[in-house]
Design goal:
With 294 residues, the protein is of the alpha/beta class. It is 46% helix and 16% strand. It is built from twelve helices and ten strands. The strands form two sheets. An eight-stranded parallel barrel has the order 1-2-3-4-5-6-7-8, surrounded by four helices. Strand 7, helix 9 and strand 8 form a beta-alpha-beta unit. Helix 2 runs parallel beside helix 3 and helix 11 crosses helix 12. The longest helix is centred in the C-terminal third of the chain and has 23 residues. This is CoA ester lyase. Keywords: Lyase, Magnesium, Metal-binding. One of its GO terms (molecular function) is lyase activity. Pfam families: HpcH_HpaI. Its cofactor is Mg(2+).
Length: 294
């Protein structure tokens, strides 16, 4: 099933007002954060507020994700217990280094009796995780695996590698592509990291366009003002939808039966283009359904 993840918004678990507001925002998903945005002394309160918010519901079709602290942190035991109790759609775990972390996280959730439907998202934000990305992605092929999505952390990667984060992120592109290829090899979704300057709409739009072109499914956000831009850029355009319908119709003609490639609008298209067209239309339908669900 295709699920839109154009815009996935981080919300501090310690901010009750923000959690309430998340019910009315047009984001495709919401990440209830227990890590970076929550001070250590506020983490118990944040767990309680997240549990209450998820129990109350009202998030419509939005994907509900809890970001815990790292599995090696002193907060992990309580965070993972919350995930089991609150039953979000997914848990996002930071500071992954390799497949052994995926196995340990899965074992902890299974030990707690967490619902098998809770998927595992992981932050790819360390140099070691980038180096071992294919091994990490391969964990999704293990029977009973929860691994479903990567979330890239460019700022953390920049900190550890000293690759400078300049406009256009040219130094990061090879790393991004390596992660995208690994994700696609094992059927994993992949989201780009946040854009910190939420007042810079033009810069944010450019980065969304780059992420879309590099193969990301969407972008994680730090401010509600970024939602509309991300939703628009990661949504198929009317021209793309018209072409998708045209290609599918062309292959449905009797004279195209049995052919691997046909002439369409002055160029040759293959059946793989028809497959891409069907996914484009399916994504548009999924977006429409999500928006109607509120």
């Amino acid at each position: 099933m295709i699920r839109p993840r154009r815009s996935v918004l981080f919300m501090p678990g310690s901010n009750a007002r923000a959690l309430e507001k998340a019910r009315s925002l047009a984001a495709d998903g919401v990440i209830f954060d227990l890590e970076d945005s929550v001070a250590p002394e506020e983490k118990p309160n944040a767990r309680g507020q997240i549990a209450q918010a998820l129990a109350q519901g009202g998030f419509g079709g939005r994907e509900r994700v809890i970001r815990t602290n790292a599995a090696a942190s002193p907060f992990w035991q309580d965070d993972s217990a919350l995930v089991t109790q609150a039953r979000p759609d997914a848990v996002l775990v930071p500071k992954i280094a390799g497949p052994e972390d995926i196995a340990a996280i899965g074992a902890r959730l299974d030990q707690l009796g967490a619902d098998p439907a809770i998927r595992l998202w992981v932050m790819i934000e360390t140099p070691l995780a980038v180096l071992r990305i294919a091994e990490i992605a391969a964990c999704a092929a293990v029977k009973g695996a929860r691994l479903a999505a990567f979330v890239i952390g460019p700022n953390d990667i920049s900190l550890d590698t000293r690759i400078r984060m300049k406009p256009g992120r040219a130094g990061m592109v090879p790393l991004f592509l390596n992660c995208v290829v690994a994700a696609r090899s094992y059927g994993i979704e992949i989201l780009d990291g946040p854009y910190s300057d939420f007042s810079d709409e033009a810069g944010f739009a450019a980065e969304c366009g780059q992420a879309r072109d590099l193969g990301f499914d969407g972008k994680t956000l730090i401010h509600p003002s970024q939602i509309e831009i991300a939703n628009r850029i990661f949504k198929p355009t009317e021209d793309e939808l018209a072409e998708a319908r045209g290609i599918i119709a062309a292959f449905a003609r009797p004279d195209a039966a049995g052919k691997g490639a046909i002439r369409y609008e002055g160029r040759m298209v293959e059946r793989l283009h028809a497959e891409m067209a069907r996914r484009t239309l399916a994504m548009a339908d999924a977006i429409e359904s999500l928006e109607q669900a509120g």
